[in-house]
Every structure is written in structure tokens, then in C-alpha cells.
Amino acid sequence: MVGQPAIITDPRKEHTQGKQALFANIGAAKAVANIVKTTLGPKGMDKMLVNAVGDIVLTNDGAMILKGMEIENPTAKMIVEIAKTQEDIAGDGTTSAVVLAGSLLQKAEELVISGVHPTIIIKGFRAASGKASEILDNYAIDVTKDNKDVLLKIAKTAIAGKSAEAYGDHLAKLCVDAALEVAVDGKVNVKENILITQDPGHKISDTELLEGIVINKARLHSAMPAIVKEPKIALVASDVLVQKTRNKATFQITSAEQLTQFAAQEEADYHALLDKIIDTGANVVVGTKNIDQNAADYFQKRGIFAIRRVNEEDMKSISKATGAHIVKNIADISEKDLGTAGIVEQIGAFDLGKTYIRECHNSKTVTLLLKGATEHVTDNLSRTIDDVLHVVKDVIEDEKIVPGGGASEIEVAQGLRAFASSFEGREQLAITAFAEAMEVIPKEIAVNAGMDGIDTILALRAKHSEIKNAGLDVYTGEISDSLEKGIVDPLRVKKQAIKSASEVANMVLRVDDMLKSQRREMMDVAPEHNIHNYDAMGM
Ligand code: ADP
Ligand code: MG
């Protein structure tokens, strides 16, 4: 039996081991980073995403791009995950996080090639990441949460380079006002207390901030009341239909009476469901699904205001603001599920207008009514506004900012280089590599603005020892005091980007064995999903 290799894995599984597995994974991670890196910074490019049915999205939002790419490769997916984490925790900085992860892995790959073991790199990266966090804490500038001037600068830095940049001043102000308006005990709940409603067919500059909840839905019947004062609001998350139920069961109907009886019974059954809602005393019905014409007629005759197909996010906001529970099963609805507000009103033509829910008792809620020529414009605007609201939230909550335009990355890089010299072993190499990887952020911001990446880094390094806040301003091409220029980022965005990038880099570095089930059908259809092809493509 000498020389016979023992087969311990399913031979049908694709098995990649050791450095080969590591390099394949690093290749995939770098491929993802390369895709988004051209969008980094105010002068970054946009990506055009086209889905299977030909819908087009133009965006430079890192998370959105990666979401739209429907990535299959497992390592690439891990990188996409960090964009999501970044979005959830900090609300901005997704591109930076992904680019940084790619850069860390690029440096790690070079170290492995030169003979440093991945476990040493992991140790060094971990130490560097912790230290980076500390450096940023010391570098951050304290601000107060009601300093509107600072909040506006934070907002404007986040808008820089987005397609709505031309309206930056107006939009920044609306976002800052919205966040300050709903702040409670220094906390801002963007998701629940700031509604974003798109209203295409207008100019972006007409975008406005309104008190209460505004839903872009009109009441279902012109004879429904346009105004309901002190409304009792029912929220229904299932279809409200009066139509023949398509039962699978077959009935044997043998006589005319039976048929009439069956029809009457059915009729009563339909209305029984509507009556369940009406019996609670509700005079406003908001549905996430369909409310058909017959149901709308039935409601209208009873003086009830009804709107349908309200999206789930909006529904949650209404629930929070009015205290109404979202009811899935109409049979279970009762009076205690109803919510209240000062007024529910439809403004505008009966079939085109919007529904306003104002003077909500439970929580302060505001709506940003986004305007734009087309739905593409308002869609894109809503992604930008979401980033902006979150950076403002970050600063209201943490009261800490850092100078932008690469200033904080250079500060971390320099701090880490000094830190590295306190290590004697090979970890020192990993920490230095981490420092170099940080500089990819200002480098890419510069390259995307048509500047020379290396010259910019050298100039930044030199200037930084003179002026601590020195950063790049791509609009003038100069290196200046970013804080004075008003180019500032929330501390939270920068800390989280480093944290998640180094975590995912370490995760990738730990893998030395990869077993992949052959999904024959899929691979035949889409061979580009095979991990090794990223290498072959030279990415
Ligand atoms: P991310 O998805 O990481 O937020 P962005 O494309 O929004 O990517 O770019 C953010 C980076 O751009 C931040 O590091 C920020 O400091 C920098 N930045 C913003 N305004 C300027 C400017 N005028 N000059 C140079 N860099 C800028
Ligand atoms: Mg950004």
C-alpha cells in the first residue's frame, strides 16, 4: 500500500489546500475591492447596474454596487458582508471598508510570498487594528451634538461626489434638521423616525422636510373623507379583498337553493372579515397589501379612509408613531391594536395626492419628501440621503469627528509605523504592512481625481508632520487643513471601516483548506462563478 494516498474527502468535492487556497481567496477578495475602488471619494466614478429584466441603477454606493452584483464566490461574499456591516453600524464608509480589506489582503499576500506565516500576519493585523482604533480616538475632535455648523460639514462631506452634490447645501440642511428634530436623549433612530418618501416628477431642489408621516399614496375612493381628525388607525398586513376565494376544495352543489345559500354564506364571510376591522372602531385603514375595489366601497360607505400597498418600512414608522399594531391576521384584530394621531389627511388630487399623518402622539416622526425628475433620480437620492442621515446621526450620538480627505488614514499609518518598531519579531512586518494598507484610501481618492497616487501619499506624509489635520482636497488638488476646509468624517465611520476590514482579512487568512461542493448545474451555466477564474482573469 506504499505510495497510495488516503482519500479522506469526497472526491466529487473541489478541494483546494494550503497556499493555493489562500491565494485563491485573496484573489477573490481583491477582485471585489478592485470593482468598487474606482468609486471612492468625491471624484469617484459611478457604476451602472443592470438587472435581468433590464432595470438600470446608476450608483457609487459601495453597498449598493455589491448587492447588485449577486456575487457567488464565498470569499467575495464575505467581503460583501463587511459592506453590509459597515452600512448597519456606521451608515457610510462602505467603499472604504471594502477597499481597505482588499489592500490588507494584498499586503498579506506579499508577506506570505516572502515567507511570513499567515498566523503571524493575523497576530500583527489584530494588534494593528486595536492600535489604529486607539490612534483614531486620540486624533478625534470633540464636538457638541447641537453644533449645527459641524453637522452641516459632516453632511456635506458625505454628499460630496454623489449625483445630488449640486444641491448639497439644501440637502445637508434638511438632513441635519431632520436628525436634530427626532433626536431623543442624544440618540437618533433614522430607520423608524425619519421617513423617506419619494415623489418623482419635480426638481431635486424642491425636496422638503415635513412634520409627521407622509406616504405617497392616495385614498382609495373619492367619497372617502379627505380629513379624519383624531383618527383611529388600523394597520393591516394582509390582503383585504372581497372576491371569490379560490379554494382548492370542490363542492358538490346539487340544487339552486344550495347555490344561493353558498353564495350568501360566502358573501357574509367576506364582509365578516371587513366587519372585524370596522367593529374595532377604526376609521383609517392602512394596508401593506391589496385592498380591492369592493372592500374600498364597503369602507367608503362607512366613512372610513383607506390606503393600500404601503411599504413595510413606512408601516413600521406609522406603527411606532401612532402606537398601532401591525395586524397580520384580520380575524385577530381588536380595538387595542388601533393607533392614534392628531390628524390623517390627504392633500392633493384624490387619485394623485399623498396621505399625511400628523401630530403623532407616540414619537416624533418627520418625513423627507424627496423630489427628482424621475424615479431613478429619487432612488439614487434616497441612497445618498440615507448615508447623510447616518453620518449626522453618528456625530450627534458620538460627538466626535475626524479630518477627512485621507488625513485620518495617514495619521493611523504614521502611528502604526511607530507602533511597529516596538515589536521585535515578524509581527513588526505585519503591522508595517497594515500601515501601508491604510494609505490606499488617500491614494485611491487621489487617483480617482486624476492625480498621481504615489506623489499624493508622499506629499501627505510630509505635510502631516507639520499640520496634523492635513488632508487632500480633490476640488483644489491641494493638501491643506481638512478641518478648516470642512472636510470631516464621523469617527465612527473610520473606526468601523478599519475594524471590519481587518476582521475579514483575518478571516480570509485563517483559511488553508477549501472544500467546495460541485454544483454541477450552476457551474455549467455560470463558470465565472468558479473561484479560480478570478485568478485567470488577472484580478
Ligand atoms: P465611502 O463609501 O467609503 O464613504 P466615498 O466615495 O463616500 O466612499 O468617499 C469617502 C471619502 O472621501 C472619505 O474618506 C472622505 O474623507 C473623502 N472626501 C470627502 N470629500 C473630500 C474632498 N473634498 N477631498 C478629498 N477627499 C474627500
Ligand atoms: Mg461615503
Please supply descriptive tags for the structure shown above:
539 residues, alpha+beta, 5-stranded mixed β-sheet, 4-stranded antiparallel β-sheet, 21 strands, 50% helix, binds adenosine-5'-diphosphate, binds magnesium ion
Give a description of the structure:
Helix 4 packs antiparallel against helix 14 and helix 4 runs parallel beside helix 18. The two termini are 43 Å apart. Strands 9, 10, 11, 12 and 13 form a 5-stranded mixed beta sheet that branches. Strands 7-15-14-8 form a 4-stranded antiparallel beta sheet, with helices on one face. The protein has a 3-stranded antiparallel beta sheet with strand order 4-17-20, sandwiched between helices. Helices cover 50% and strands 15% of the residues. It is of the alpha+beta class. A hairpin with a 5-residue loop joins strand 2 and strand 3. The chain contains 20 helices and 21 strands. The C terminus is likely disordered. The protein binds adenosine-5'-diphosphate (ADP) and magnesium ion. Magnesium ion (MG) binds next to loops. The site of magnesium ion has 3 residues, from loops.
